[in-house]
Amino acid sequence: MFFMDFPLEKRILGETRYSTGRRQVTMDLRIFPRTFWAANTIELFERLAYYGMNIILAIYLTRRVGYSTEFAVRITSWFIASLYLLPIPTGAISDKIGFRNGLFVAFSLLTLGYGLLGVFPTKDMVLVSLALIALGGAFVKPVISGTVKKTSPEGFSRIGFSIFYMVVNIGGFSGKIVAKILRQDLGRWISASGYKALQDWIAVNVPPFRVTEDIITRAAEQTPPMEPQAFLEMLKWQGFGMQAICVFSMAMAIVALLLVTFMYREPDRTGEPVSSMKKTFVDMFRVVLDWRFMSFIVIFAGFDLMFWQLYLSVPLYITRHISETTPMAFIVAINPGMIILFQMPVAAAVRKMPPIATMALGMGISTVAMVLLGLMPTLVGACISIAVFAIGEMTFAPRFLDYVSSMAPKGKVGLYLGYAYLRSFIALFAGGFLSGKLVARYVPETGLREPFKMWFVFAAIGGVALIALFIYNRTVGERTEDGESQ
To answer: N or C terminus of the chain: which is more exposed, having fewer CB within 10 Å?
Structure first.
């Protein structure tokens, strides 16, 4: 149970208390039905799989697969971007075929994709694997968030989305912890156990294969400095650990598939219009003509461009500029850890603010976090900046999803929530190219590093998005649940 203040006229399950002239109500979370909790549990395992793999993807593509820094960051951004473009058609398809069938398709593809990514780390197979993961993940996003909307009791969708977002971050936090253990600790444990056959296989199959001038330079830069051969061995075991992370992600996808089979039930869709597949796709393109809605999505791409630097730029920034031995995954896990702890209090604190004002506040706080990353290029600075960004994110994200879903006509919740993720596609498509250039220029593997220039560029993008939102709100106004402006 948790406490939340509601207007006097709102009646909810629970006991009544009085405080500062308002009625304080203890809300019983059992008012959310079984399918709501099933969807959130499935989301937990999907996020465990995704964030375990995603946090190491750029490093995996450079060190294990062999892509250049720029191309690896670009592939990573394109992969994540596709996860946020494909929900438009997959959301429409899921509205047609049913949410449960959409989840069966999703986790079958995810199981195959993660498995291939871990077992066959070659340049060609990696692209096939990421395509399968992107398609599977694109079904999950609108279906789970649509289920949250459909199964939240009337008047409690904001609370439902806050719970959902907290669960997302529990999965994200746990996935990063598992990634750290498998990438940095697994090899040390196995090598100490004396598995000679595995050690011989890794020596032959996992790069880097020999001590080079680059290895010598990077070993000397570590805190404390390392012997080149010891540094080489560490990198090889980390390469093996990253493959193990992908296999772990496959296992989580299998668990989620079992949960869909035995726990998830199709949400009640009574009263929703039945559309042909042709009309479904006509509706999909018709949404694009709503210039107010599309402008809204484009503006908030500025927030997402900053957010995705936690996965595009921060891992390379930490391992290159701070230290290879720094627990990078733990540092990035500060973000979901903060959200797990403070999502509900923050939701309560901003619940009376207008939606756009709440989202603007979140974007502003996150922009400040980018500035702090530039001003404090240290381990402590990175931790503080990521914690500040988390405050902005938990202020912004649940209100955004609730706001978009409330504007969807009956039978089109999946479609509209698919379009809600278009902002991330735009951010990643543009941000992947930009972050690849900035990391290569200002945070190279060896040579002069000036990371503050990179972070100030991202902060400037957040500032421009805030100005655009101010103009939007003055000219268009906020949308009501029937889609009208006010």
So the answer is: C
**Distance separating alpha carbons of residues 421 and 332, to the nearest angstrom:** 22
The residue whose two tokens read 């992370």 is 245
Which range in 23-32, 352-361, 366-375 is most confidently predicted, on average pLDDT?
366-375
Q: Report the mean per-residue pLDDT for the chain.
A: 83
Residue 151 in 3-state DSSP? helix
C-alpha count within 13 angstroms, C-beta hemisphere, residue 347 = 26
- Start-to-end Cα distance in the chain: 35
Cα dist from 246 to 87, 327, 356, whole Å? 23, 19, 38
In the chain, the largest separation of any two C-alpha atoms, in whole Å, equals 72
Whose tokens are 């391992």? That residue is: 319
Whole-prediction pTM value?
A: 0.72
Say whether both 124 and 271 belong to one domain: yes
**Cα separation of 373 and 455, whole Å?**
6
Average pLDDT over residues 380-389: 94
Contacts of 39 (CB under 8 A, 6+ apart): 144, 147, 148, 151, 264
Query: Which of 271, 304, 257 is closest to 426 using CA atoms?
Result: 304
Closest CA to 139 of 108, 176, 172: 108
The total of other beta-carbon atoms located within 10 Å of residue 220's CB is 12
For residues 407 and 296, what is the distance between their CA atoms, to the nearest angstrom? 13
Same domain, 364 and 248: yes
The encoded tokens of residue 114 equal 């993660």
CB atoms within 10 A of CB 238: 24
Contact indicator for 295, 289 with CB cutoff of 8 Å: no
Beta strand extents in 307-438 (DSSP E only): none
- Residue 56: DSSP 8-state: T
Domain range for 8: 1-30
Q: Is the pLDDT of residue 180 over 60?
A: yes
Residue 366: is it exposed, middle or buried by C-beta count within 10 angstroms (0-12/13-18/19+)? buried
Here the tokens at position 456 are 């100030």
